[in-house]
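RECORD TYPE: protein structure
NAME: Ankyrin
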Amino acid sequence: MVLDFYGLFQISERLFEAVNENNVDIVNELLTQISKPDLDSRHGECEETALLAACNKGYLEVTRSLVQAGADMSIILDRGRNPTRMNALLTAVDHMHLDIVRFLIEAGAKLDDKGLTIANQMARVAAKEGCLDTVQCLVAASVNPRCMNELNPGSSMLGHGLGRVSKL
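PREDICTED:
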């Protein structure tokens, strides 16, 4: 079946809506109709991809379907004037969706140098606050475990828009 540009745009928009509704069945159906570039298209005022939206909301099965369909786990979401360079893995960590963090790590998600810097800061705060599951996930994601020995009482994730750490 040949789709025109408008048809592809509609499928991409429908996929994004199904992701936001956590509708795995429709997501899987639409994934059979969409091309790789359209799978990674950006939507909404935050310009999220479908994968970033699923990781943000904690939708593990939708995340799994998108990754298995080839969604790019390395796409960066730059937020505002002071971008935090959030990819799928950092988004899941930031929102404490540890099941998604584990899945993405198993699927091969990586952090670039700036992502590692942010994750190291997140790990320091998580260790200081006793969130050991978060620390384990971050260490598994290639965060430097030595950062746990460099706890800085004045460090905060708030400066990076990452103020959601809490005890598990």
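COMMENT: The radius of gyration is 17 Å.
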